[in-house]
Amino acid sequence: MNRFVVAGIIAWVFTSGCVSSYFATPNDVFLRHATIYFDSGTQKTGEITVQFENGVTSNRYVTLYNKDLHQSEQINVDTVKYYQLNNDVYVPKKIDFNFDGTYHFLFVKRLTEENSKIHLYELHQDYKTNATGEDKRLYFISFPLFSKYEVWATYSKNLFPDFADKMSRQLADCPALAEKVRSKTKGYFIASQVIPESTKLGVYKRIIEEYNSCPTSRLSATAGMRADHMRY
Q1: pTM
Q2: Which CATH number applies to 1-86?
Q3: Cβ of 115: how many Cβ atoms within 10 Å?
C-alpha cells in the first residue's frame, strides 16, 4: 500500500470519527499508541501505523499520527532503531524466509534485553498472510558485529546441520561456553529441528545468558568466518 494512501486513510478515519485501531502483528498495526526510537537517539510518540504484513516490502515507511496537531508523519524506517508498544520492542530486520536471497523488510519482537551481546527475535505472521494458513512464529538470532538489519533464522543452514560446530564457532571468544556447545552438553545442544520449539528456545536463551555473563566475551572474533557476509 502506498504510504500516501495510508496517510490519507488515517486522516479520513480521524476526521470522520470512525476510529478503529488494532494490533494484529508487529507488521500489521493501525493507529496504536507507541513510541518510535531513532538511531539518532531521539524519540517520537503517537499513533503508529505499520502495513508490512501483506508483502509490502518496498514500502520503507511507517506512519505516526499526532492527535494534538492532527498531523500524520511518514517516517523512513531506515532511521528507526525500534518502536515500543506497551512493554514490547519491535526491531526492523531483513528476513530471508526461503534462503533464496529474497529479503523481506519486517519488524520482529526482541526477546532479549537491549544490552544483550547476542539477540533473539520473534516474527509473528498472521494466518492470512502465510502459505500454511496458520498463525506462525519464527525465530531469528543476531551475533556481535552483525549489521543493523542482519539476522539468521534459527532454522537456517548457518546453524543446521552441525549445530554444535557452527554455534560454537560463533562463541569462540567465550571458550568455556563454546566447549559446552561443541561437546553437546545437555541444555546447550539442539540435535535436530524436530524437537519442540520451546526446547530450542530454551537452549538459545541459556547460551545467550551465559555469553552475556562471560568475562572474555567481546565482539565476535569469528565474524569474518560467517557464511553470510551480506551488509545492508
Answers
A1: 0.84
A2: 2.30.30.100
A3: 6
pLDDT at residue 226, rounded to an integer: 46
Q: Which residues pair with 218 in a beta bridge?
A: none
Q: What's the grid cell of residue 229?
A: 557476509
Helix 197-213, helix 175-182: angle, nearest 10: 160
Instruction: Collect all residues with Cβ–Cβ distance below 8 Å to 161 and sequence separation of at least 6.
Output: none
- Per the structure block, which three cell numbers stand in for 103? 529479503
Beta bridge partners of 110: 121
Rounded to the nearest 10 degrees, the angle between the axes of helix 175-182 and helix 163-170 is: 170
Question: What does the alpha-carbon distance between residue 202 and residue 111 come to, in Å, rounded to a whole number?
Answer: 12
Q: Where in the chain is the domain with CATH 2.30.30.100?
A: 1-86
**10-residue mean pLDDT series, the chain (232 residues):** 52 57 96 98 98 70 95 96 98 89 93 97 78 80 96 94 97 97 97 90 98 80 41 39
CB 48, CB 83: distance < 8 Å:
yes
Closest by CA to 204, choosing from 146, 114, 136, 118, is 118
The three three-digit cell numbers of residue 31, written as one number: 493507529
Cα(66)–Cα(45) distance, integer angstroms: 8
